[in-house]
Amino acid sequence: MRHLLDFQGWTKAQVENTLDTARVMAEVLERPVKKVPALQGFTVATVFFEPSTRTRISFELAARRMSADVVSFAAQASSLQKGESYKDTLLTLEAMGIDAYIIRADSAGVPHQATRWVKGVVVNGGDGRRAHPTQALLDAYTLLEALGTLEGRKIAIVGDILHSRVARSNVELLPLLGAEVWVAGPPTLLPQSLPGARLTPHLDEALAEADAVMVLRLQKERMEAGLIHLQDYIAHYQVTEARLKKAKPGAFLLHPGPMNRDIELEGTLADSERSLVNRQVRNGVAVRMAVLYHLLVGKGR
Amino acid sequence: MRHLLDFQGWTKAQVENTLDTARVMAEVLERPVKKVPALQGFTVATVFFEPSTRTRISFELAARRMSADVVSFAAQASSLQKGESYKDTLLTLEAMGIDAYIIRADSAGVPHQATRWVKGVVVNGGDGRRAHPTQALLDAYTLLEALGTLEGRKIAIVGDILHSRVARSNVELLPLLGAEVWVAGPPTLLPQSLPGARLTPHLDEALAEADAVMVLRLQKERMEAGLIHLQDYIAHYQVTEARLKKAKPGAFLLHPGPMNRDIELEGTLADSERSLVNRQVRNGVAVRMAVLYHLLVGKGR
Amino acid sequence: MRHLLDFQGWTKAQVENTLDTARVMAEVLERPVKKVPALQGFTVATVFFEPSTRTRISFELAARRMSADVVSFAAQASSLQKGESYKDTLLTLEAMGIDAYIIRADSAGVPHQATRWVKGVVVNGGDGRRAHPTQALLDAYTLLEALGTLEGRKIAIVGDILHSRVARSNVELLPLLGAEVWVAGPPTLLPQSLPGARLTPHLDEALAEADAVMVLRLQKERMEAGLIHLQDYIAHYQVTEARLKKAKPGAFLLHPGPMNRDIELEGTLADSERSLVNRQVRNGVAVRMAVLYHLLVGKGR
């Protein structure tokens, strides 16, 4: 791969290769001196046309821990306000000699377009409702760490599936590793179809015998748009200790963060032993190191 | 000490030890190449739930000059806006492998709570009205530099004592080094009591024979809240050349910055030879280097 | 030179010396590892009292590629909001041990004043309508790269000359290298006189036999102020393929960015072979490296 945009055309071997490198990176992160010279002299730009501190910091740490330089471009503080296009912004950064672009955008397809404009490598840091591939890779890494394998495992994704790039990327990725993916949510927040996943408006059906449950963040905007009512959502889709009894004993809980405790999930669940939320964040840095390493100096070239 | 939250339980020896290290750091800062490898491979996060560019830059420089990596989290640009709690923010950073947190918050106690959430070390960068310990350490360092000793010296702190974490931390720290601390301000801006200090609404009483006068910044919010009238404040509490005649000849002037010239102090005083304001800023970097060094690699561990 | 504020008092030899160093820096930027240790241990502060992401990132990369540390101060996020003056801001940074200041300000003269306040070197990153010397240096570098020499060459600058620091700095600099500079724009956007340049309200006169055309960005504020009407501007001053026929065959096109495509210039022109826009951005990093190097460690000292 030359860029990481989504998982179209990826093979199981490529995924495993990336996750293997992430495991090496995770060992680096356990050392007292969490720094290797792998990307010395490379410059990584985070180009965020939509704000997200936690994703930005995760990529920034991934780059710095491999000794890359990092520059941050955020649309709010930028000349985009003066009408500069995505393209001109990226061409400007390209001319400054950036090696890798982490692009986040509220409209789908911006990272794809970027690959036509710049010579550097592009990593999709989340685009519209389309894809968030490093999130799915860290989810896969975390699930494998907890479950050993994804072969034949049932993973339930719960919440606003329709608008979720996290769901979409996981539905692309997890089946490659042998998982059976179910997605559940209110009818107004479910797509018509989602190749790779089984859809249901019944939470219990998705949870039944699941090995792990991924709870999505509920966006306030959905309520404002009249797509759901908060109390209805909580009544029918909040993931609770009680409802998790349908799943396999000890089934794990994931959430891409930031969590709305006591909205999409019972607050105490987030801190329970089932929760892999902090592992996800931890693994995110290792996975992003692996992705940048592959694209910039590894076999990705 | 494992964290720096305030000076509860601190001994004179601990303070002197920290200031001794700060003196070594100050020598590093006099070199043409102001950089040592002491914190290579460590990552320091500035976590500012309340904005403050100068404090952030001071800590950032302190960390960088010891070769640490620095990431900055500011609540404005962050998912806190989406309702994420202080706790989840810090747990997320913790999972990313941060070694030290510089936490600034508008509510008192956030840095204390943080020590229960994270494994890394916590430095209080100012919390509500409660404490601003690195400011007090740099004030102590600067006073010692100017006066030689604090034993038996009279230090006057003037202004809005009630809402000032700077005053509170200095009142905790300076007596440990033998100073007698007086605080003066309008009755509406004085606390009922302040253990460690002598309180007075009469500026002249605090200034009388003082060795140094620390002038606090007057917050516009106090006027809006009807606690004071600007002209009254200026008439009775502005520190001027004339009023300083009550103090010891050559008494020094400190201010935590940023100053409102001609409000809390006569503008020209800030640039006079009495003023230690720039020394305070300069010493701030050295003191913060010492604190981070002690907590991360020194005897603090 | 001790600072870079504008080109008053500069000689041709000094300009050529700076551009020669920039050529060496440009070679560094072609290497796989774009990093040299020239400024290790130095700290560069970008002090932006007016926002500009692209200029900030360009300077930041220039500093980092010579291994300097960089801290960023932006007025919006800062205590300037609390009424702190430019002077106190700079004195604070000075006390923290900054070696070089890149200062951008909406009012002319702030960088000049700064040289009286700080001991470190000052680089004008653009002040009001007055000067933007690194922009002019990168324009000169780019023109020399394209034309071989500026001796006897005709350069046309088109647009809002009156409010443009880019025009002003180019009019100071390019004649030193032998160029004949014409400036053209609507009468309401032309100054009374501009020593070093020939002024005309007739675009065709400026374009006639020009070797290169520099198109300035049209600020929306000018329309709001009633100085021009957009359709009139486009009709009479937009630089188009057709109008460029007046210029020498193959005349080059420059723009300081960000561009308003199809306003000040025909959109397709920006991507044509004539366009040096991306070269300008690329050369900007090399030129800024040269300036920082000269001022901090080179003959500038």
UniProtKB/TrEMBL annotation, chains A, B, C:
One GO MF term attached to the UniProt entry: amino acid binding
Keyword Transferase applies: yes
EC identifiers of the protein: 2.1.3.2
Span of domain Aspartate/ornithine carbamoyltransferase carbamoyl-P binding: 2-145
Family per similarity comment: Belongs to the aspartate/ornithine carbamoyltransferase superfamily. ATCase family.
Binding site for carbamoyl phosphate: R54, T55, R104, H132, Q135, G257, P258
Catalytic activity of the protein: carbamoyl phosphate + L-aspartate = N-carbamoyl-L-aspartate + phosphate + H(+)
Listed pathway(s): Pyrimidine metabolism; UMP biosynthesis via de novo pathway; (S)-dihydroorotate from bicarbonate: step 2/3
Gene3D superfamilies to which the protein is assigned, alphabetical: Aspartate/ornithine carbamoyltransferase
UniProt name for this protein: Aspartate carbamoyltransferase
Cellular component terms (Gene Ontology): cytosol
The protein's enzyme class: transferase
Swiss-Prot/TrEMBL keywords: Pyrimidine biosynthesis, Transferase
Function summary: Catalyzes the condensation of carbamoyl phosphate and aspartate to form carbamoyl aspartate and inorganic phosphate, the committed step in the de novo pyrimidine nucleotide biosynthesis pathway.
Assembly mode: Heterododecamer (2C3:3R2) of six catalytic PyrB chains organized as two trimers (C3), and six regulatory PyrI chains organized as three dimers (R2).
Binding site for L-aspartate: K82, R165, R217
Residue span, Aspartate/ornithine carbamoyltransferase Asp/Orn-binding domain: 151-295
GO terms, biological process: 'de novo' pyrimidine nucleobase biosynthetic process; 'de novo' UMP biosynthetic process; amino acid metabolic process
Stored InterPro entries: Asp/Orn_carbamoyltranf_P-bd (IPR006132), Asp/Orn_carbamoylTrfase (IPR006130), Asp/Orn_carbamoylTrfase_sf (IPR036901), Asp_carbamoyltransf (IPR002082), Asp_carbamoyltransf_Asp/Orn-bd (IPR006131)
